[in-house]
């Protein structure tokens, strides 16, 4: 279980990985590298649950079945804090955050990330799946795709919020972006029907 924070600013930083080598072989089979992206949403945890139930629960994939298991990486991307804020209903100039305010926001982000990853890792532990965690900083869409490419991920799993066409056009969709830009196969897990309605 390894937690690494890589600053990204606008998402241009390179992911620093301690192990660049290919996963070790078990019985002549390469271990599959799976990445699940999580955030505060229930949909992202639904995607993790789906991966644990459907990928790690199948015959031939678990270490007990001789499939060698697989490497599960849970990634969370923090958006960088902007030091200036433009007041919404004012024509005055921008407000510049003080150092203490920036430090307070960063500490809050770190606590939030730690809580999310702790919850995700506990889900993995409950299913007896070994996982590593990674915290990145930058635009989630870009950083997820970049890290998946740089880590040579075999399968990316993301949750879908089920946004309609209009909301997706204005807000953008991480899952939609990843579907078009990730270099590996991707599974987009839709919310359960009762949650979606």
From TrEMBL:
Residues 1-28 are annotated as: Disordered. Residues 33-190 form the UspA domain. Coiled coil: none annotated. It comes from Citrus sinensis. Residues 17-28 have a biased composition (Basic and acidic residues). This is UspA domain-containing protein. InterPro entries: Rossmann-like_a/b/a_fold, Universal_stress_UspA, UspA. CDD domains: USP_At3g01520-like (cd23659). SUPFAM superfamilies: Adenine nucleotide alpha hydrolases-like.
């Amino acid at each position: 279980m390894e937690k690494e924070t890589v600053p990204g600013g606008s998402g241009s930083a390179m992911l620093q990985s301690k192990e660049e080598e290919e996963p070790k072989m078990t019985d002549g089979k390469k271990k599959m590298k799976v990445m699940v992206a999580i955030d505060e949403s229930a949909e992202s945890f639904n995607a993790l649950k789906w991966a644990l139930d459907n990928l790690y629960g199948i015959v031939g994939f678990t270490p007990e079945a001789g499939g060698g298991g697989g490497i599960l990486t849970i990634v969370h991307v923090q958006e960088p804090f902007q030091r200036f804020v433009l007041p919404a209903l004012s024509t005055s100039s921008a407000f510049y955050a003080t150092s203490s305010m920036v430090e307070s926001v960063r500490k809050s982000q770190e606590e939030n990330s730690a809580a999310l990853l702790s919850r995700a890792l506990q889900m993995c532990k409950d299913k007896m799946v070994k996982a590593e965690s990674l915290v990145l900083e930058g635009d989630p869409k870009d950083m997820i795709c970049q890290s998946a490419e740089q880590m040579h991920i075999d399968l990316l799993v993301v949750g879908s919020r089920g946004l309609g066409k209009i909301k997706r056009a204005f807000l953008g969709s991480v899952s939609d972006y990843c579907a078009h830009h990730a270099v590996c196969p991707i599974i987009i897990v839709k919310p359960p029907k009762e949650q979606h309605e």
